[in-house]
Amino acid sequence: xxxxxxxxxxxxxxxxxxxxxxxxxxxxxxxxxxxxxxxxxxxxxxxxxxxxxxxxxxxxxxxxxxxxxxxxxxxxxxxxxxxxxxxxxxxxxxxxxxxxxxxxxxxxxxxxxxxxxxxxxxxxxxxxxxxxxxxxxxxxxxxxxxxxxxxxxxxxxxxxxxxxxxxxxxxxxxxxxxxxxxxxxxxxxxxxxxxxxxxxxxxxxxxxxxxxxxxxxxxxxxxxxxxxxxxxxxxxxxxxxxxxxxxxxxxxxxxxxxxxxxxxxxxxxxxxxxxxxxxxxxxxxxxxxxxxxxxxxxxxxxxxxxxxxxxxxxxxxxxxxxxxxxxxxxxxxxxxxxxxxxxxxxxxxxxxxxxxxxxxxxxxxxxxxxx
Length: 371
Fold this sequence. Notes:
alpha/beta, two-stranded antiparallel sheet
């Protein structure tokens, strides 16, 4: 498993020239730093502090947006929650187990939107936060390859621990020192080879650190998702990640965004913030076409908890370029079946809304760690 020490070894070994030092600066988590948020862990128990962060007070809005859960969805949700409880017990070995209903429900909402596009065999998530989308993709056999890219060390370590727990031997950790050194890694007088033959695996998960993003290229993805981050990136970082998305998305794939993030304070010319309008202009300049954009419920009185956006690139059947100054928001597609999961109040599926207390009682029946 990846520890803070091993992560630091790989990170330090990767910073070999001015180009890599510049890339490290691009990836600085400036929003977290400005807010006083802890961005680096020293040991495993530091991860306990971030198991339940980032989505405070959004459980009820998401439950309303989703119009509750169907019976099948309730089973998926409870299974994921139970796996998260088991993970904490396995990792921390303590009796204080947290069930992060706010964060888990946010990731479940994202999963339902992604799975609504039908084709999500290959998914790339940039900026996974707590990493809870892995709980749902791991349990869905339709997904064959899930890749995470993360820049913040403390979140990277939590994602790595969870990914290893869920996928076991089908988890590829890109921050392992052996991957950086090529043939393996040496500790003391012993050398250890690192091998992972992805072509022999029916499904697997890959975890990618910031120092592997400069030339990031994989077999193209059906879905790329970037959530609660686009307006929180420096302009250089936004440019980098939009290039990654453009170069790694299939022609008929979708770039899915749940929450555009909050524009941050500038810490200097090289870290000038990206406002929402600047971010949207950057997206269009890169060659993406916005097929769907809705504001959060506090802004337009609608049903969505946060901003939601879906983009396609040139080559997609839905692609249409914009003339300068012609973009009008929101862009809603209520009649398009591609976006049916964004308007769950329009279908005839029987669902029920749950409270956190009700879900906890159901979860206690499954987990001996909560009894």
